[in-house]
Amino acid sequence: MLVVSEEACRRLITPALALEAVEAVFAAMARGDARNFPVIREALGHADALYGFKSGFDASAMLLGLKSGGYWPGNVARGLTNHQSVVALFDPDTGQARALVGGNHLTALRTAAASAVSIKHLARPDARVLGIIGAGHQAPFQLRAAAAVRAFERVVAWNRDAAKLDRLEAAARDCGLAFEPADRKRVGAEADVIITITSCFEPLMMRDWVRPGTHIAAMGTDTQGKQELDPELVSAASVFTDEVAQSVAIGEAQHAVKAGLLRADAIVPIGAVINGDHAGRSGADEITLFDGTGVGLQDLAVAGAAVEKAEAAGLAARVAL
Ligand code: NAD
Questions:
Q1: In this structure, what are the phi and psi dihedrals at residue 130, rounded to the nearest 5 degrees?
Q2: How many domains does the chain have?
Q3: Distance CA 144, CA 170 (A)
Q4: Domain range for residue 209?
Q5: Nearest Cα residue to atom 44 of ligand 1
Q6: Whose CA is nearest to atom 23 of ligand 1?
Q7: Residue with CA at minimum distance from ligand 1 atom 4
Q8: Do 287 and 309 lie in a common domain?
Q9: Angle at Cα 38 formed by Cα 36 and Cα 43, nearest 5°?
Q10: Which of 14, 23, 188, 191 has the smallest number of Cβ neighbours within 10 A?
Q11: Range 105-118 average pLDDT
């Protein structure tokens, strides 16, 4: 079995590689070549932590496996990231363990790649202002991945604690983008693309604040009860997602569906747009929304790329089980 460390993943997997892997697996899901298995996610009743498994099989890439890990909110105070995870890959022909891959850096990259895939396929080509709601661990990854798929010139960003916007500002400057802290109404009024990436349980962006033609990537809501958008905003948008069942159960769409404002069968898998089976954005005034819930197959896709790169670079350690 191969072991690929967090450090190797950091060195070898670029945002561009992650985007390519995630785009391919979303396309495979929409073709019916790849499927996610039911997610297990439990509150431990210890350390305030959520722990679980996300798994699946991609027959087109021959990737079988799982990501195990979760969310430990006290970790930042210990100098660790709140998300902790490991990906295990298995040989689909024999079931033998193939690789163990550090999942922390890959999780941030694959999550940012998902919103970037949605921006690539759904945002207006002339999008120039990127809005970001949230400034936690994931936010700078989101900014960097988005900056690679559109010619943004400026970032307007809001965080509950404005003092914590500095890492996001550094990422923007790194990408050659102007950066302005803003309130949420201003983010809605100025941004062509808005990424929400918080752990919030109530709407942060309201229907009336968002302009026609905006693309929103709602990335924070991945659990029942979490929420970042006004359900009226969700119902005013054309809604796309990674996986429809998750979008309805644990994604941003859960609230609009529950309120009877959105039908589950109106939600389109982003893979259908990638495959050319759905036209995507229908016009310059349409509000498009990507409900990024996070699926196990994304983790397997980037872990598979990490194993391939690490083997080629001599950075995968071989251990006997
Ligand atoms: P983090 O703990 O580092 O940051 C959390 C962010 O949420 C901070 O900006 C914080 O200010 C904000 N926030 C928390 N509660 C809020 C509230 N009530 N109102 C407004 N803002 C609030 O977390 P992170 O690693 O950056 O992840 C952000 C969110 O994204 C988490 O909820 C996580 O579960 C989710 N996530 C989703 C996916 C996916 O695939 N969709 C993947 C990874 C993480």
A1: -105, 125
A2: 2
A3: 11
A4: 115-294
A5: 220
A6: 136
A7: 136
A8: no
A9: 130
A10: 14
A11: 97
Structure confidence at residue 95 as a pLDDT band (50, 70, 90) = very high
Task: Please tell me the distance between residue 81's alpha carbon and the centre of ligand 1 in angstroms.
Answer: 12
For residue 255, give every residue at least 6 positions away whose Cβ sits within 8 Å of its Cβ, in sequence order, or none: 227, 229, 231, 234
Q: How far is CA 291 from the centre of its chain?
A: 9
197 lines ligand 1 (CB under 6 A): yes
* Active-site annotation holder among 54, 67, 120, 226: 67
224 C-alpha vs ligand 1 centroid, how far in Å?
Answer: 14
Closest by alpha carbon to 287, among 245, 242, 230? 230
Any catalytic annotation for residue 120? no
C-alpha 246, offset from chain centre:
13
**For helices 166-174 and 139-147, angle between their N-to-C axes, nearest 10 degrees:** 20
Nearest CA to ligand 1 atom 12: 198
Whether residue 223 has pLDDT greater than 90:
no
Distance between CA atoms of residues 247 and 260, nearest Å: 15
Any atom of ligand 1 within 6 Å of the Cβ of 292: yes
> What is the pTM for the complete model shown?
0.96
CA dihedral of residues 139, 143, 144, 146 (deg, nearest 10): 130
- Please name the residue that has the structure tokens 């193939």: 98
pLDDT tens digits for range 8-21: 999 999 999 999 99
Kindly report, residue by residue over 233-249, the tens digit of the pLDDT: 999 999 999 999 999 99
The two three-digit tokens of residue 109, written as one number: 């990259």
How many other CB atoms sit within 10 Å of the CB of residue 62? Answer: 12
**3-class state of residue 8 by DSSP:** helix
Q: What is the CATH number of the domain that holds 253?
A: 3.40.50.720
Shared domain for 219 and 190, answered yes or no, is yes
